[in-house]
Design a protein that fits this description.
The chain has about 325 residues and is of the alpha/beta class. Helix 1 links the parallel strand 1 and strand 2. It is globular, with a radius of gyration of 20 Å. About 40% of the residues are buried.
Length: about 325
């Protein structure tokens, strides 16, 4: 019996390599892997639903589910996770020394609804008492001009959003001081190129992020995996088989990390970093499944609701294919 052919749009993560190179296979499924930058994947899936299976922004998915519009459903596989205190960049002449100094400032964001921006705004509000309405938000392309929100937003009136000139970029405006700070998932090129005008708000962000995890137990989720509903309607077994295969592929990465005879990762002190991570976060520090991620998912929903991105406080169980939320026992 021939396998079901499905397109799979996803960036080139180590945690999918065993699946894309054939070491691990999803039972009954042949995946046509489309390796693209996440921004392109999200745009094409949200705007045109082009793929059978796709990596997708968690924030965009929450908005779509809230509006009852998507024709896709997530499985509890989290392709991207990242602590985001490192994602706040400031102009050194802005007078910003600590999070409270962001109040009243001009802060650039590529899109208001980006998941990284959702998490950072939530952290600023809950940990530092800096609310979204305290900041003047400037939106537009970070490195290339003309970027727009991939989803039309209806935000509370107290949120002040100012689109930048469509010929300008947030990167050049941060470097010149035309905006005071930038919040984004990607480091701006002016920072990467060593501009003397730009630095991170949290210079020792690793210490800050570890403290955040120890206090909250939250490892922020950035991206989920979604399957088109028409696929699930005709082949309901696809959700569970994909989930099992992606979990197995991730376990292969863990196995590689434990090898010390030859390093799997091109970093000289990787073993020390892996040991420190497991000591802090446990052996399965990148967990899939709902229950191990309930607190993190509930925080994301809360932040999205508080920030006016979604109008209803979504039930966590309703976000995922029901078949992936339970399994048989012998």
């Amino acid at each position: 019996m021939s396998k079901l052919n499905l397109s799979f749009a996803c960036w080139d993560y180590d945690r999918i390599h065993a699946l894309t190179n054939g070491t691990v296979q999803a039972d009954g499924i042949s995946l046509n892997w489309l390796n693209m930058p996440v921004e392109e994947t999200f745009w094409r899936m949200m705007r045109h639903q082009e793929f059978d299976v796709s990596e997708l922004s968690l924030s965009s998915y929450l908005i779509a589910k809230d509006r009852g519009l998507p024709n896709f459903t997530a499985i509890p596989v989290f392709m991207s996770r990242c602590f985001r205190h490192s994602g706040i960049y400031i102009n050194k002449n802005s007078g910003i020394k600590e999070p409270a100094d962001l109040r009243g400032k001009r802060v650039g964001i590529p899109e208001y609804q980006l998941t990284a921006c959702l998490w950072i705004r939530g952290i600023l509000q809950h940990d530092y008492n800096v609310h979204p309405e305290d900041i003047n938000w400037y939106t537009g392309g970070q490195e290339t001009s003309g970027r727009i929100e991939k989803i039309k937003l209806v935000l509370p009136p107290e949120i002040n959003i100012i689109p930048i000139n469509e010929e300008r970029t947030l990167n050049e405006m941060l470097d010149s001081g035309e905006i005071d700070a930038l919040i984004a998932p990607r480091a701006p090129s002016c920072f990467l190129n060593g501009s003397p005008n730009v630095q991170r708000l949290f210079s020792d962000y690793v210490t800050v992020e570890k403290d955040y995890y120890q206090r909250t137990g939250i490892f922020p989720i950035m991206h989920v995996v979604v399957v088109k509903d028409e696929v699930l309607k005709e082949h309901p077994w696809v959700a569970t088989n994909l989930y099992k295969a992606l979990e197995e592929a991730k376990q292969k990465v863990y196995e590689g990390f434990k090898q010390t005879a030859a390093l799997k990762v091109t970093l000289p002190w990787f073993t020390s970093e892996w040991e420190n991570t497991t000591e802090l976060m446990g052996e399965d520090f990148w967990p899939y499944g709902l229950e191990k991620n309930r607190k993190t998912l509930e925080a994301a929903v809360t932040y999205s609701y508080e920030q006016g991105l979604i109008k209803n406080k979504l039930n966590i169980e309703d976000l995922f294919s029901k078949a992936t939320l339970e399994k048989y026992t012998l």
